[in-house]
Amino acid sequence: MYPLIFQSKFFTLHTVWVFLGLAILIGTYALIKLSISNNLKLQFLGANSLKLILWTIIGARVAAILINFKAYFYEFGLNSIPKLFAIWDGELNLWGGAIGFFTYYYFACQKSEQNFWRWLDVMVPAGIIALAVSHIGAFFGGVNYGTPTSLPWGVNFASPIVKYTIPIHPTQIYAFLYAALIAIVLISIANSKKLKTEENPGMLGLWGVAAYSIFRFLEDFIRGDDTTLILGIRLSKIIIPLFIIFIGVIIYFRYNKTAGRKAPNIR
Fold first, then answer.
1. 228, exposed or middle or buried, with CB in 10 Å at 0-12, 13-18, 19+?
2. Residue 225's Cα: distance from chain center in Å?
3. Under DSSP, is residue 244 helix (H, G, I), strand (E, B) or coil?
4. C-alpha to C-alpha distances, 169 to 2, 20, 115, 139, 222, nearest whole angstrom
5. Helix, strand, or coil here: 146?
6. pLDDT digits over 7-30, tens only?
7. pLDDT at 41
8. Is 151:120 a contact under the CB 8 Å cutoff?
9. What is the pLDDT of residues 124-169, one digit of tens each?
10. Angle between the 235-262 and 203-219 helix axes, to the nearest 10 degrees?
């Protein structure tokens, strides 16, 4: 565990933020390559890239504050306000970030007359490969850790933020492995000729989001870090299944739309 890469009297460089920066660079590179491969306009990315990152951070931060409301407002006062904007404390929520990203992305597509679904097919693979890289940073930072385990690959974290002193599941490594696997499969399909001629775009992106969400839900059963509980249940165990159902409904209606269009007219 190496939470800090560099520390001095004036500056501290956290490992989590280094890997987050790498994740953004690698994800952006993958997105550019996939966009070119699928004949999508890079001008659209250039015009909206900074705003997409900004809205992702805003969504991730707002969700983190709402989930950990008591931690930020245990004593209300002017001193509480600066803490809301101190994103360097590492409190960013993945699902809030996704909501912020796709909300802005949807309206940007509408404004620029871009095909939302075709962009979804390249943004999701690029986003998941970025998540895979960020999970490595989470491992070195000691966040998003697992529950105790007797398995031979259990790890010990010598950190005050980890409440276990015995070997625990390296859930960050698990997350890296399943995210990387999903990303590799999606990128391989996104580069295929079939996707470029797909009459009903968006299915690759939707299935990618669904696959990642399912694995993330399974991961939650061996997560040991503290989070908001509702009736003793981790909040993410409630939110993620609802999100998976939502994605499933979209896939169902888009699949039926495609099936209906391709069905022969038999009299």
1. middle
2. 18
3. helix
4. 17, 22, 41, 11, 7
5. strand
6. 666 666 677 778 888 988 998 899
7. 86
8. no
9. 999 999 999 999 988 988 888 999 999 999 999 887 788 898 999 9
10. 160
